Amino acid sequence: MSMPSSFALQQALRKSFQHLETNQKTWHSVLAECNPLVGSVGNLAQQLRALSNVNISNTPLKAFPDLQERLHFKLVQALDIVLEKLNEKLVLLQSVRDSNSNHVTAAFQLYERNADTLDLYACTQRSPVAPSIADMLEWLQNAELYYKQQFLKRKTLLHSLRPDDLSLLESTPKRWDSLETLSGEEYITDTLFRVSFFVESHKGE
Amino acid sequence: MEDQSQSSDSRKCSAVTGSGRKLKDNAADWHNLILRWEKLNDEGSGVAEKIVNQRLKLSPGEGATPPPSAAPPSCSQLEQECTKLLGVVSKMAAIVTRMERLASSQRGVLELEGFQWGAAGRGAPLFHGWPTRLFVELSQGLLESYQKELALKQRVVQELAHTGPLDVCMVYLSCWLYQPYIPADSRLTLEALLLETGHRAL
Amino acid sequence: MSLRVLTQDSADRGSQRCRMGLGLMSTHGLNLGSPLLVSIARGTCLCTAWPRSDLTEGFIQIDLKCVSPNLIVQPSLKLSLGPSQLTPLTCSKLRHIKVTVVVQSVDFRKNTPLHIINELVKDMMKGVYVWKKHVINVEDWDAEIKYVVVEEVSPDCADAGLVTAKTSVDLVGTQTQRHFQRQLRDQPVDPLGGLDEVCASLREMLELPLLYPGTLSSLGVSCPRGVLLAGPPGVGKTQLVRRVVGEVGASLVVVRGPEVVGSRPGESEEALRAVFARARAEADEGPCVLFLDEVDSLCPRRTGSSAPENRVVAQLLTLMDGMNQSDRFVIVGATNQPDSLDPALRRPGRFDREVIIGAPTLQQRKAILGVLCERMPVAPSVDMAELAQRTVGYVGADLGALCREAAMCAIRQDAQRSGGQEIDMSHFQQAVKTVLPSCLRSSLGRTDLSPVSWEQIGGLQDVKLKLIQSIEWPVKHPDAFMRLGLSRPRGVLLYGPPGCAKTTLVRAAAAASHCSFLSVSGADLYSPYVGDSERALAQLFQQARACTPCILFLDEIDTLIGSRCGSQSPNSVQTRLLSVLLNELDGVGFKTLERRGTERVLQAEGKLDYQEVCNKDVMIIAATNRPDSLDSALLRPGRLDQIIYVPPPDREARLAILRVCTGTMPIDDDVYLEELAAKTELYSGADLEKLCKEAALLTLQDEGMGACSIKHTNFLKSLDTMSPSLTAQQIHTYQTPLS
Asked: Quick one: chain C helix, strand, coil %, rounded to 5?
């Protein structure tokens, strides 16, 4: 096993995991910012639903004949604004995904370039202080796939929303929450935990 | 009328005088009033939400108003909130009254102009390019929307605490929150007014 | 060394990894994440190599993310693989791919702009190794997009490559999952024999409006929208529709009548509307056929009161009328009782055209057999034409069963003695005995016919000859009849004293001519209900026509049908039956539904053609021993025009009969049959048979159970105890010519 290439690869892996950690934090904070927005989507949908259920002329508000139309317009406008804000958040999530993806790809490409000089058996060697290179590459790939899927699911959800599809809008907060898979997040945390010693120990070198 | 307008601008020293001065001050007043309205609306929104939530708690099932006598202690709380909301609405009413005054003073400026310059109007515009008539029209439009909105709110505040179906409650709440009678471009109108009168730099 | 295939770990789902041992990886020269092609069953799967986390050898786990289309339908993994089934690949980065996207719902397809789908697909495909024409399974993304079909890759020097962020993804089209999966499944279409003409006409009907709506509208013609397929059960109506739909490339929405009918009021109508909505949705994706199987159960003839069926019929009518030109789907209904359909359905604008598929004719049977036997190891000695002739009245489904049965026979024989795996004629002959034609099933005239050969009937040479001439020849050699301008007789009347083998003669004739054989007597037809007997008789003729060539045998016709000039009142059952019979004999009762094959102009194409064209009629054979009581209208030419007297046996005939009867008996040498024949004047055939039996019984009586031969004396003794059943006067009346 050629030492220089192995060392370079380990450095790249270390960097990737460090990035993964910061990315996980950013991802969480962006998602936290999304929550109230998604909540208000559901809220607005409820109000739109109520409005469509009520016939204004049968209520004490019958003195305002154009109320229904005006209120509907206002609500849809508010919905537009919220969705616009959510889309901005989505762009943030995308950048997290992309930066994560880039690092993983870079690490993997480094491996591929040096694959011929790296011994396959050595790559699968685990030690008490560090997981094997194969394991780490695999974890990075899994993490990348996880973020890609997470992002895509959220993007699809937002793109599927239309102001005239009330039931979809109403269910948005629930669906948004259900996209968050505990196991996926745990996997990332676990991975970071497993490599924490590896990342820390060689920092000085 | 002329006297009134001249006396009011004595506080501030500015390059603009006369009708121009009057219009400029009015614009600033519009801005302040609308800001205050917004603040009141936000305040009222919180209260209205509380009222609706309490109403929902009081009668989980939809339907008739719970008789006030049989209501649990939180009913007094509800009453308290309603009073608060009434207070907000009355403050709003005061704002609208002031808006009416502003609009009528602007009409006065236009009438004066008509008296001074005849039907053709002033040769050069007071500020950048708007004819005086436009100020009047704009402020009239703003006034009307706020008047209507106030009427709606007065109606809502009367009904909010004791109405039947949930959906109607919801509609009251969204009426309060989203102010259907204040058009989306009212904000733009105000900004244009401020720009024209030189409150905002171009 | 073989590798055991294990199911993949859930964490690897969608990762495209193929987990294997390190040793295997290094022998194949694979690095971490190197692409490799795995051949499984009938397809291939593109994976990336990864070591198993426990590093053990001998196992393999495959993620089926990128597979050939047939593995999408049946992802059956073999339990073991050889190392040679793994092929390492070198994959370059792709510049460009063209894909078709398979999405879950129609709504998504309609509402999502293409560029969004394109973005999503691009995100999904990034970092995936693809193989040309493979299908990428992205179900684990839980998105609306389920599969991505890789249509083309570029640079196209290689079949495989890696999709990167720089690869441009071109969307060729979108499909719904249902459509896609059906397409995959529909690829093998069962061939259909003998229905080429019907198939072509149906095909044309479907293709015109579905594929060329523009042409039709430019001609100012509205597209035909409905086809009604009518025909007896088992002729292949459903299969025909599936086949044609497959050929045209349309999608198929199948509704079986009973499925739609619900118990709740309004449920059926709702279901029907849902079905139409489904067809409409399918039609958005391409041509679509809405197939209403068993439509008669859905839309029976409406009756006066407000029965629930009436509402279903009305709903269907409304829906069919509501289809407008923009609905690009065609309705095909299938029924075996078109007459029980509501007539409002059968007018232009609803079911515009009716295609009748009758029971297969000779040629059609031959074609069907040809198709069925194509994939069976049939011995070259099997003559399909001969088999087609033997299977009169069999519909497609029967022939299928026949072939299956023949194959089973072959297997049973093989199990006993190891021989060639071939199905020969004897197997088919055995199968013909067990598989009965469904045309004749439940027919009241169906008789279990044990074949009788001419030799089993003693004497009566003239009669036999006449019967052969009038029954067997026209069926077997129609070309000769045509050549000589002979028209075949329509019906034969056998008359003569009772017990003189009239029935047996007919059986022999039927057996010799390989016709289907229906036999009725008066008792079969009688029913206490008014009109029932007539309907039964008409139905009998209808069935007989469905299985031509067919012999319809009316035994004891005098009991069945009386004479109008007799004492009976004009409205008796017998007279009504007579009029039905006369109608049927003249061919009046023929209904459109009974049409079979296509009308063909006779050209000398071959013997089979002649047989097919000429044998469309039912041969009627009637037997009676009271010819005088028959209505004269029955006997005029064109009806029962061949009248054959079956005389009581004369001396020589009696001798022949006795020979036949004693053929199976051990008789002493001293038995002198000639003497017996001379002494049995006025004995009928039946009498003679009884005589022989009597003699055998007497032998047993006299000599105990150990007797081994019958002596002449016993014959004489039995002759003494018997008296002839015929009288001279009786015979005389028969011999006077019929008036």
From this structure: 45, 20, 35
3 state DSSP class of C630: coil
Query: What are the pLDDT digits (tens) for C71-111?
Result: 776 666 566 778 888 888 888 888 888 888 888 887 787 77
Q: How far apart are CA A186 and CA A184, in angstroms?
A: 5
Q: Could you state, in order of their start, the residue ranges of all structural domains in chain B?
A: 17-196
Which pLDDT tens digit goes with each residue over C586-640?
A: 766 666 556 555 544 444 445 555 555 555 667 888 888 887 777 777 777 777 8
Q: Which of residues 76-95 of A touch B (CB under 8 A)?
A: 77-78
CATH number, span B17-196 = 1.20.1050
**Bridge pairing between strands C66-67 and C59-62:** unpaired
Tokens of C512: 């010799």
Residue C222, amino acid = S
Whether residue A74 is contained in a domain is answered as: no
Task: Specify the residue for token string 């015929």.
Answer: C726
Please list the ranges in chain B whose pLDDT falls under 50: 1-14, 61-73
Question: For residue C144, which phi and psi values (nearest 5 degrees)?
Answer: -70, -25
CB contact C56 to A (< 8 Å): no
Q: Quick check: is A97 in a domain?
A: yes
B interface test, pick of A40, A44, A46, A47 with most B CB neighbours within 10 Å: A47
On the question of a cis peptide bond just before residue A60, with omega within 30 degrees of 0, the verdict is no
* Residues C504, C508, C514: CA angle, nearest 5 degrees: 145
The answer to whether C673 and C658 are in contact (CB under 8 A) is: yes
Residues of chain A found within 8 Å of residue B167, distances taken between Cβ atoms:
49-51, 53-54
* C176: three-class secondary structure by DSSP: strand
Q: Per-residue pLDDT tens for B44-97?
A: 888 888 888 777 776 554 444 444 444 444 667 778 888 888 898 999 999 999
d(CA C469, CA C356): 34
- Whether C644 and C463 have beta carbons less than 8 Å apart is answered as yes
Q: Give residue C144's Cα distance to chain centre.
A: 42
Residue C492 · residue C619 · CB < 8 Å = yes
Pairing label, strands C353-356, C66-67 = unpaired
Alpha-carbon C440 to chain mean position = 13
- How buried is residue C27: exposed, middle or buried, by Cβ count under 10 Å (0-12/13-18/19+)? exposed
What is this structure's pTM?
0.59
pLDDT tens readout for residues C128-148: 888 888 888 888 887 788 888
Contact B175 A60 (CB under 8 A): no
Q: Tell whether A162 is covered by a domain.
A: yes
Domains of chain C: 3-88 (2.40.40.20), 92-185 (3.10.330.10), 189-215+222-356 (3.40.50.300), 362-434 (1.10.8.60), 454-645 (3.40.50.300), 651-735 (1.10.8.60)
Yes or no, beta carbons of A105 and C108 under 8 Å apart: no
**Structural domain count, chain A:** 1
Instruction: Output the pLDDT for position C418.
Output: 54
Which residues on C lie below 8 Å from A145 (Cβ)?
A: 14-15
How far, rounded to the nearest angstrom, does the alpha carbon of residue C285 sit from its chain's CA centroid? 33
Number of C-beta neighbours around residue C669 at 10 A? 8
Q: Collect all residues of chain A within an 8 Å Cβ-Cβ radius of residue C142.
A: 149, 153
A 10 A CB-CB count for C704 gives: 8
- Asked if B touches C (at least 3 Cβ pairs < 8 angstroms), the answer reads no
Instruction: Identify whether A189 is part of a domain.
Output: yes
Question: Residue A96 corresponds to which tokens in the numbers above?
Answer: 């997290």
Dist CA C737 CA C311 (whole Å):
63
CATH code where residue A152 lies: 1.20.120
Place of tokens 């008509």: B114
